[in-house]
TrEMBL record:
InterPro entries: FAD-bd_PCMH, FAD-bd_PCMH-like_sf, FAD-bd_PCMH_sub2, FAD-linked_Oxidoreductase, Oxid_FAD_bind_N. This is FAD-binding PCMH-type domain-containing protein. Pfam families: FAD_binding_4. SUPFAM superfamilies: FAD-binding/transporter-associated domain-like.
Amino acid sequence: MVAFASVAAGLVSLCQGARALTGEQIVQQLRTQLSPASEIVLTSDAAYAKDFTPRFSITNQPAYVVAVKASLVKDVQTIIRYASRNSVPFLATGGGHGYSSTLDRLRNGIALDLGLFNSVKVDKAANTMTIGGGVRSDEVATTLQKAGKEILTGNGDIVTASKDRHPDLFYALKGAGFNYGVATSLTYTVYPATNGGRAMNADMIFPGHLNGSVWHLAERIVGQQPKELSITFSVGYDASSGGMVIIANFIYAGPVAAGAKLIKPFLDMRPLNLSIAEIDWKDIPRKAIYGNTLAGCRPGISYVPYAVNLYKIDVPNLISVVNYMHDAMRADPAVQTAIIAWAQYAPYGFRRHTDASSAFPHRDALVFA
């Protein structure tokens, strides 16, 4: 269990008494230890807002005094070891997502920006792709299966974790949280593109009073959903109509004709609006859900997500939830921006791997909301 031991040592060191270093002291001490292409600034400097990757949500923001954009893996190693040695808290930022409601407990810390780790390398012969720790998911438009990670643990050690090397750490990294290290690169297994790299994207809008019919159809698909089909629903309030709406998105890794047959019951409900087309797989992040897939990824928004897994689709209960949302939002405009996001996938990928393959605990969930 070498990997876990090294992680624990690093995390414990961050909990020791702080020396109350000023931002100026941290910059002065760290700058000489970093490679020339790295950048280190005070968060009060104009360069911080200009050059560094912000977290998308302004809710529960950590309070940094220094930001460092590392250029090399050894720079990340230097920063982590410096922070551990001096009891300075730090957080690493890849693409900018950070949902934990406890992040604001970090005060007077270091922002470790992985924005320069943005390479994407594909080895066609080996069917693998290696990406840097700062690459965003919308920049990688391929269905991936995790095969390996290179990370720096809590005490600055460089560790390559895979099913064969440090398998205990690899197991934990896949589903047990984000406190095991800073991932500077990740290697995935890739698969041949289906349908020439094209997919069906279908967006449609239903009025809120049809939500029961939508949930009944979603329930009917359970156990029969093919692995090529993913389903999402966004339930929210439409101020212009004064009622709830459900935006449905269906992505099928195949031609439109085949995908349309699978979602015909939804099409037969005659949605208020329908957009269905075959698009390049790489364009899905920017075109799905009427082009709003990345709406929650804009810096500076107030974003407070909470997750709920559904292990059964209880239609009467879901109808009650939508009705409650309608009444609450109609009465209070301040909450009208809240939505329920529903993701329903085929269980093929989960069932393909055993429980012992990763720490991911939600294999039997039907819906991720």
